Amino acid sequence: MSDSDLTGLLQAWRGGDRAALDRLLPEVYGLLKRMAAGRVGSLDRTPTLEPTALVHEAVLRLLGNSPDWQNRSHFLAVAALQMRAVLVDHARARVAAKRGGGAALVTLRAAEFEAVGDSVEVDLLALDQALQQLSATDARAARVVEMSYFGGMQREEIAEVLAVSPATIDRDLRFARAFLNRQLGG
């Protein structure tokens, strides 16, 4: 399905066409599953969260919100935010179940997430807190990180969503790398 077809379905659904949702979900499911597999695959210490479960929870959250997606890229950006929320909630639940006995660790690899740089073990909850601090300092850079790491989006897609140039995305990623490395002790 082309980007314009997907955008048309998103807009039709936003306009109240329930049949558009029936056509939309099978189209985006594969995209979301690939995004989820990339994120869950890096969560070596949380084998209880499968990509399918992550997608299902994210889709439920997406459907629970009032959709106002302009296009495919915007939808994927919102999906990335929902996946981040699901992953953080899952990590919090695991920590609570262990009564504070160590949070889930995430290995952030440069190939997966340009903003961190070298491979570094990071507590997912610490990453969430650092992203909140980054958001207070530079909200756009934090959104770039969310879309890049949690959404697996390419810089051109992120640039389209944020209506900035790819070079601006590169600058935001460099800033985010330095900020997160400092916050996470890397």
From TrEMBL:
Any one GO molecular function term: sigma factor activity
Gene3D superfamilies, alphabetized: 1.10.1740.10, Winged helix-like DNA-binding domain superfamily/Winged helix DNA-binding domain
Transmembrane segments: none
Residue ranges occupied by any RNA polymerase sigma-70 ECF-like HTH domain in the UniProt entry: 4-184
InterPro entries, alphabetized: HTH_Sigma70_ECF-like (IPR053812), RNA_pol_sigma-70-like (IPR039425), RNA_pol_sigma-70_dom (IPR014284), RNA_pol_sigma70_ECF-like (IPR011517), RNA_pol_sigma_r2 (IPR013325), RNA_pol_sigma_r3/r4-like (IPR013324), WH-like_DNA-bd_sf (IPR036388)
Keywords carried by this UniProt record: Sigma factor, Transcription, Transcription regulation
Any one GO biological process: DNA-templated transcription initiation
Domain of life: Bacteria
Similarity comment: family membership: Belongs to the sigma-70 factor family. ECF subfamily.
Name the UniProt record assigns to this protein: RNA polymerase, sigma subunit, ECF family
Organism, as annotated: Aquimonas voraii
